[in-house]
Design brief:
Bound molecules: protoporphyrin IX containing FE
Largest sheet: 5 strands, mixed
Order of helices and strands: HEEHEHHHHEHHHHHHHHHEEEEHHEEEE
Number of helices: 17
Distance between the termini: 67 Å
Structural class: alpha+beta
Strand order of the largest sheet: 1-2-8-5-3
Strand content: 5-15%
CATH superfamily of the largest domain: Cytochrome P450
Number of domains: 2
CATH topology of the largest domain: Cytochrome p450
Helix content: 40-55%
CATH architecture of the largest domain: Orthogonal Bundle
């Protein structure tokens, strides 16, 4: 295909070299390129590497689904690897396939249903804290609250009873810096190394102890074996645990942060969510996977939040071999970028794209799976493993807390976007809670 006799079919693009990275400046640069060159853009980096920026949903689908084996994770993942080790999110090829097969059962529906108790417990604990804030007539840093909520939940889900005995046993949570530190600097890499020692202690203690009856994700993952009957080594297990903790809390926390902010700004959406929650989850005993599964409006509200603010706002891939798209060639080594944030807001597919409108996703809504570009959880074999977990977690959290608290926005100023590896709000979102008063 790329023989010297046939010229390469390259998309249009700028003559000058451009640096494309996963950082805040990239969004503006990509939007400008899309405006000037259309849905397929070829860029050369200052180091002479070829980069494609793709805004064509069919080509994105092709790369993520049908031709997935021809693409590895791209350049943005070098930084993630530095932080998380070679866990399932960054690994490729046989290492990834083995990890995926071994970890997937822990995220099956039956398995996630066994974590509903933890989801209720973490929501109940937030309600306790928020009641004190209401009593003191205070405000909530909802960004921090959501970080703490989602971090506690993923740690309890992974470690079960070890959360109390090994993690918060000294009165503080050694993982807390993950949700406190907004700057992703070298300091965090060192702190991550210390966490690995703690994880090794937990894993070693588990390997020595009798199998315990209580269910948690760690026991599922530790008992998983590959085709040759081997389990994860300690080092592999620790990479996977760190990966699951970070992947499992930042994304859900970010989504809930935006969801609360949108609810505070859209009283009709709050009222509709509240009505549904009162009907389906009137008390803790009624919170089951069936009742949560029936929360159609909560589902739509979260889907619309993820359309506007997809935590993984940009994807990168790199072609492992020569490939071709419909009209263009992709030489081996080409770096590929595409952005759910941009595609989810493209007017051509999403009319009035800036407007928050959960009805887009309802049974009567215009969105049907596959007819519009929508991929907050990616697509194909590398699709997110925690999608079901996160929907259950977010629906229980919102359904539980909206029945108890009404939120008012403290500032009309948009908090801004922090476009790092994950999309977060640049400034923390502050809301004023009060006791939920909407008429029954
Ligand atoms: C709102 C919540 C979430 C969103 C939007 C989200 C999004 C994503 C996306 C886009 C990817 C693919 C990244 C890529 O291919 O470059 C991914 C992968 C992954 N996610 Fe999530 N995620 C969420 C929650 C979770 C949770 C709660 C967990 C675990 C507890 C989790 C575990 C994973 C894992 C293990 C992968 C790697 C899958 C693989 O490569 O085989 N995610 N996620």
């Amino acid at each position: 295909m790329t023989s010297s006799s046939t010229p390469l079919r390259l998309p249009p693009g700028p003559d000058e070299a451009i640096r494309i990275d996963v950082n805040p400046e990239t969004l503006d640069a990509l939007l400008t390129l899309q405006r000037e060159y259309g849905n397929m853009v070829a860029i050369t980096t200052p180091r002479g590497r070829l980069v494609y920026f793709i805004n064509d949903p069919d080509e994105v689908r092709r790369i993520l689904v049908r031709r997935q084996a021809s693409y590895g994770k791209g350049p943005g993942f070098a930084r993630v690897r530095m932080l998380l080790g070679n866990g399932i999110i960054v690994s490729d090829g046989d290492t990834w396939r083995r990890a995926r097969t071994m970890i997937q059962p822990a995220f099956s529906r039956q398995s996630v249903h066994r974590l509903i108790e933890q989801m209720i417990l973490c929501s109940r604990k937030r309600a306790g804290r928020w009641r004190d804030v209401v009593a003191a007539n205070g405000v909530l840093n909802i960004t921090r609250e959501m970080n703490e909520f989602a971090l506690e939940l993923i740690l309890r889900s992974i470690f079960g009873t070890d959360y109390e005995t090994h993690i918060v046993s000294n009165g503080s949570n050694p993982f807390a810096f993950l949700s406190d530190d907004s700057a992703r600097d070298l300091g965090i890499v060192l702190k991550m190394r210390n966490l690995r020692n703690l994880l090794l202690e937990i894993v070693t203690a588990r390997r020595r102890s009798e199998p315990h009856d209580a269910f948690d994700l760690l026991s599922m993952i530790m008992s998983a074996t590959d085709k040759s009957g081997e389990g994860f080594s300690d080092a592999e297990l620790i990479d996977e645990l760190i990966t699951l903790i970070v992947a499992g809390y930042e994304t859900s926390a970010g989504t809930l942060n935006w969801a609360w902010s949108l609810l505070a700004a859209h009283p009709q959406a709050e009222e509709q969510l509240l009505r549904e929650a009162r009907t389906l989850l009137p008390n803790e005993d009624s919170i089951t996977f069936e009742s949560v599964g029936d929360m159609q409006y909560a589902q739509q509200l979260i889907e619309e939040t993820l359309r506007l603010y997809p935590p993984v706002w940009i994807f990168s891939r790199q072609s492992l071999q020569d490939d071709s798209l419909t009209d263009f060639d992709v030489p081996a080594g080409t770096e590929i970028f595409f952005s759910p944030y941009i595609l989810h807001r493209t007017e051509e597919f999403w009319p009035d794209p800036e407007r928050f409108d959960p009805s887009r996703f309802g049974p009567q809504g215009k969105y049907q799976k596959g007819n519009r570009p929508y991929f907050p959880f990616s697509l194909g074999p590398r699709r997110c493993l925690g999608e079901y977990f996160s929907f259950l977690e977010m629906k229980i959290h919102l359904g539980y807390l909206v029945q108890r608290f009404h939120m008012e926005t403290e500032s009309a100023v948009f908090p801004g976007l922090d476009l790092g590896i994950n999309l977060r709000s640049r400034n923390d979102i502050i809301l004023r809670p009060s006791v939920q008063q909407f008429a029954k």
